[in-house]
């Protein structure tokens, strides 16, 4: 094999290594939701990219096989090529044949390894990570073609790997089945914030969502001593005057004593005419315990279309109230209106 031909083969193998490495990192890094969106918009090559992302494990196996084949080829062709090129250089120094052979062999190995690592792997990897979407779209069709050409071999390799894993009592873990834990998601979000992709306000709201499932009524409720209540025996005008001095739209109504809440009144209902007694305006109120999750309470409020609930402890003693606004404030932050002080 001539030196020029072997050098061309080496360059081609190096380029193919870069292709497989870039494709492998790009299809892992790219967001599948973004590829699906582009496919729905009939973007160029997006359908092919979607196929690769949807069958990620198969195409990762194709990339790994391609990297292995080209790496072996670089090892065989590269050392021969550079050894042949360097031999005249070392011969000009008048060294012995043994010394020339050792020096050319070592130099050829170092040069081939350097080019393989830097040009064939590190540079394509960095490009793929930074331009994952573009690389995936550009290389989707070539990797699909390579997969089809070597499908029988890839199928045999995957099958052999599964057999070995089954012999040691393990199941193959598909890359596409790996999910991020909550802690990992928090770290990713924090890194995105540090990189300027997520604002401080967005970061605060996202972090509050993570603790949403962990919150109970006790974490959000208004304590018993801060509740503004209306006596059921009050006249309509007395109730109106009471509401005028308050800052709320819904008021619990008690009978006989404040521990006996029979419902609630909406402030606007007090403006109705021909009301003989305010008991006519009372709406049913939701009953919850302080250990209930706010998620379940919010669902109850949505279903019953009631935005207020009274809270009892484990001894069935009234300990406070909770409103939909109290729950939402734990997610989006403090919600103030013109009456808040």
TrEMBL record:
Localisation: Cell membrane
Superkingdom in the source lineage: Bacteria
Matching CDD domains: CBS_pair_CorC_HlyC_assoc
Membrane-spanning intervals of the chain: 6-28, 59-78, 98-119, 149-170
Signal peptide: none
Pfam families, alphabetized: CBS, CNNM
Name by which UniProt lists this protein: HlyC/CorC family transporter
Species the sequence originates in: Mammaliicoccus vitulinus
